[in-house]
Amino acid sequence: MGESGCGKSTLVNTILRLEEPTSGEVILEEKNVFCLNKKEMLQLRKKIQIVFQDPFWSLNPRWLIKDIVGEPLYVHLNLSLGELLTKVEKLLEMVGIPKTALYKYPHEFSGGERQRIAIARTLALEPNFVILDEPTSSIDVFSQNQILELLEKLKEEFNLTYILISHDLSVVKSMADKIAIMYLGKVVEYGPAE
């Protein structure tokens, strides 16, 4: 948690190995992610996924929903087309999106529905860790509450560990067990959410 510009997104990009750290290490499952080779990093990427802040920009506008949600399955698993479509339908169903969405484009959905689609894609590879980068900041209040309830349900159902990036105290209070406060690129406080 922290104000805009405090380094939350940089931290996320470093965890995902999209940016090099200026100091320190990123240890996931007892491994320094910056010491992993390409094959090891590909395996790790299956275990850690991200839900971006703005579902409009995180979903390719030229792809059908079946392709967006199915891409991680296509890249990482050797599934037949039928198996892939069945898995995509189940993922969409889990987040409350009907299978009629398979052959639609992202712009045909509301912000809350797009965020649900992004969450379905995130769950495709059954990750252990999910980074939630301001997952409710670009959607209406009604959809925010629905998304938070969905995320809580999925956390319990799949035993997920969330890394929640937010500056919204009410979202953090409803989701977090532990909180780290960032200021000027550093964690300045860490402890239980209470």
From TrEMBL:
SUPFAM superfamilies associated with the record: P-loop containing nucleoside triphosphate hydrolases
Leader sequence segment: none
Keyword Transport: yes
Entries under CDD domains matching the protein: ABC_NikE_OppD_transporters
GO biological process: transmembrane transport
GO MF: ATP binding; ATP hydrolysis activity
Metal-binding is among the record's keywords: no
PROSITE patterns according to UniProt: ABC_TRANSPORTER_1, ABC_TRANSPORTER_2
Coiled coil region boundaries: none
InterPro entries tied to this protein: AAA+_ATPase (IPR003593), ABC_transp_ATP-bind (IPR050319), ABC_transporter-like_ATP-bd (IPR003439), ABC_transporter-like_CS (IPR017871), P-loop_NTPase (IPR027417)
Keywords in alphabetical order: ATP-binding, Nucleotide-binding, Transport
Domain ABC transporter intervals: 1-194
Pfam families: ABC_tran
PANTHER family according to UniProt: ABC TRANSPORTER, ATP-BINDING PROTEIN, TRANSPORT ATP-BINDING PROTEIN
Name recorded for this polypeptide: ABC transporter domain-containing protein
Source species of the chain: marine sediment metagenome
Lineage of the species this protein comes from: unclassified sequences, metagenomes, ecological metagenomes
